[in-house]
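Sharing a chain and its predicted structure for anyone who wants a worked example. Both blocks are below, sequence first, tokens second.
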Amino acid sequence: EQAGRLAFERGDREEALRFFQEALRTDPDQRAAQAGQGRALAALGRTTDALSAYQAASAKRPGPEYPLELGELYESLGLGQAARVEYDLLRDRVRGAEAAGADGQLLLGRLEADHGDPAEAVRVLRAEWGRQPGTAVADALGWALHRTGADEEALEFAAIATDGDKGGGVRSALHVFHRGMIERSLDRYGPARRHLREALTINPYFSPLRVPEAKRALTELGEPSVEGPPT
């Protein structure tokens, strides 16, 4: 399952699917592999099979994370009501997990930033950053700040999540995409173009919602000017 996850993170859909299928052959109750299978199948355009895999993983595992991926897949297909059902399920599962002593604030912040209340996401993620700062929290907080319009501060956290010298040594397509979009909002078109291209190079299939958004942004940015600076 971990090998499949690594293969998918570098954009190798077919190899990822093979690893996830082998994990499930070995252990049919491996729900992380089932969700990974859904991720790889969606990237391969096998949408019906992907939905089935995600639904099975989400139904049989009490953890809250799979409804977010399934909801975003539904949303990418224009099925907004089905997506909202999954997002509400995620909120319920986070509450249940926290009642049992687990920390679901990072996941809740990610959900609210993109599919709920960005201001609430900032509040939740600032508290999480105070408790346990890390790359994933820096990325999520930076994106939530961007969604509220606080782009200068957002870029500070996006840099923490993506710059090796600031601790963000993991090459995550989603993190780099977030940084590129924040830079675009700040009219930093050169870095934005570079980071959006990097995100698609790391993994051209990293998100059924965000990949089309990255491609649209790059098209709008166009190619850099070949002219020299104005006199």
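Comments welcome. The mean pLDDT is 91.
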